[in-house]
Amino acid sequence: MKKLITLILISISLTSNSIADENWSIIEDKRLITRGEIVWGHQFGFMKDLSLCDYDILLLSWSSDISDGKLKEFEGKDAYVQINMDGEVLDQELEFTLMFAGNFGSMEVGYFGAIVKSESFIKKLKQSSKIELTFSKPNKLIKILDIKTDSFKTEGLDEYYSMLDNSCPVIM
Asked: If you classify domain 2-165 with CATH, what class do you get?
């Protein structure tokens, strides 16, 4: 788990060598992100780790102007996010773990990660055009987020995801 946390933090911080599209950016061949429509600084996307190539790691960065340093208290804890994909609210929520939180000017930014093992979810996400994410619990976390919902354009994900997926070695 510590290795995953370290890899997520390093991947989120790297911004060179990116391939940009209207919706998606590939960074360092290991991270694929799209930015929030409400808050441009919010990011949603994927990460590939050579030691975890069998799994998709979802990334989510989220900021708050009202957390007053309290977001850091949730490091290592889970947050649940409701998903609305192209107008359809999915039955299951995604469970993200807050890996790291830190100050960025007057804001506090949290970096969340989730390992996704559902191929059907990833397939549906690749075919979508927009995803809306809403933090649903825990309530103590929701109270310190000034913006609880953001939308992300997902068009083009299938094409860009394949570039990201190609960073993992093919085992014969």
From this structure: mainly beta
Helix (H) or strand (E) holding 8: helix 2-13
Q: Shortest CA distance to 100 belongs to which of 86, 113, 91?
A: 113
Structure tokens at 7: 């890899």
Domain boundaries, the chain: 2-165
Instruction: Specify whether the CB–CB gap between 23 and 45 falls below 8 A.
Output: no
Q: What is the pLDDT of residues 5-29, one digit of tens each?
A: 444 444 444 443 444 457 888 877 6
Distance from chain centroid for Cα 141: 17
Cα separation, 48 vs 36, in Å, equals 21
- The dihedral built from the CA positions of residue 112, 8, 70 and 40, taken in this order, carries a sign that is negative
CA angle 66, 70, 76 (to 5 degrees): 130
Burial class (CB in 10 A: 0-12, 13-18, 19+), 47: buried
Residue with tokens 């939308």: 151
Rounded to whole angstroms, the Cα distance separating 40 from 155 reads 17
**Would you place residue 166 in the very low, low, confident or very high pLDDT band (cuts 50, 70, 90)?**
low
Provide the mean pLDDT of the chain.
84
Tokens of 97: 């773990």
